[in-house]
Amino acid sequence: MLPARAPPRPCSGAAVTSSRDAPSTRLWGAPARGGQQASGVKLVTAARRPRRTTAAAAGESWTAAGGRTTQLASGSSAVAGISKLVTSTVRKSTNIHWHDCPIGLEKRQKLLNQKGCVVWITGLSGSGKSTLACALSQELHSRGHLTYVLDGDNLRHGLNRDLSFRAEDRAENIRRVGETAKLFADAGLICIASLISPYRIDRSACRSLLPKSSFIEVFLNASLEVCEARDPKGLYKLARAGKIKGFTGIDDPYEPPSDCEIVIQCRVGDCPSPKSMADQVVSYLETNGFLQY
Asked: Which residue ranges are recorded for the region named Disordered (predicted)?
């Protein structure tokens, strides 16, 4: 019998209670151009990503929630407290056909009086992604809009619990979240995805799944100094002690967005409140027509 699942993490900023069909070319916030270091963010030189393998040597990695994942020699994985999980593989399906239904995106959007989209929040661990996601969801809910939050840690309790933090598993993690977010957007919801998602190529792949104007990338530009000082899960301390390998910002690279829609700056002693961050995103959604149909 599986043990009881750990209760979900509470949303930070819970006290917040108020306040393309045609794509906008305006960048909301300070620009963060590719190839240049974004203000306050420590970049680690990107190493060549390892080739995908069918089976991993026995070893351990750590989940974002502090749980341990053991990679078995057979290529399967076992999460602490779960006897065995089958490692997923991505294969190409054949002999399948798309089946259209009479109720499509336009009718769903008309019913909800909003336009489906994906708000993709990226940044270092501890930058405030989950806090912003929850504050944004609550603000939109208070205005009568239907949203759903896809939180990186929460998804690793279920949909992605068979994945480690190796580069190839991180890519698969983001692919699954991107496909899931696409379905929510197609349902007419405002889907809010909050994940470190450190590699540009993986975020770009998710962007390509949707109409260009419907993928809104939000970069929480908080420096490593700020995030490590917060360290809400104690992961930076473990990484510095060598107990976590491949931790983003320490010994694994974070590649800031080169052309995102919104940049939210957070400097030492000058970080915006959850409500202020949420209002910035809501303003973008309003200006670009997502909050009405």
From this structure: 1-34
User: Rounded distance, CA 146 to CA 125, Å?
Assistant: 27
Domain that holds residue 151: 105-287
Q: What is the pLDDT of residues 62-96, one digit of tens each?
A: 443 444 343 433 344 333 443 444 444 556 778 89
DSSP annotation of 148 reads E
- Specify the higher pLDDT residue, 91 or 42: 91
Q: Quick check: is 147 in a domain?
A: yes
Output the domain CATH number for residue 227. Answer: 3.40.50.300
Active site residue 88: no
The verdict on residue 24 lying in a domain is no
| DSSP bridge partners of 151 | 194
- Could you tell me if residue 191 is inside a domain? yes
Q: Which of 125, 197, 214, 223 is catalytic?
A: 197
pTM of the model as a whole: 0.70
Instruction: Give the span between the Cα atoms of 99 and 39, in whole angstroms.
Output: 47
Mean pLDDT, residues 204-232: 95
Q: How many domains does the chain have?
A: 1
What pLDDT is stored for residue 275 in this prediction?
Answer: 97
Q: Confirm if 198 and 123 have CB atoms less than 8 A apart.
A: no
Percent share of the chain, pLDDT over 90 = 63
List Cα–Cα distances, 171 to 186, 204, 218, 245, 283, in angstroms: 23, 11, 19, 17, 31
Residue by residue, DSSP assigns 97-133 as: -----SS-HHHHHHHHTS--EEEEEE-STTSSHHHHH
Q: pLDDT-derived band of residue 234, with 50, 70 and 90 as boundaries?
A: very high
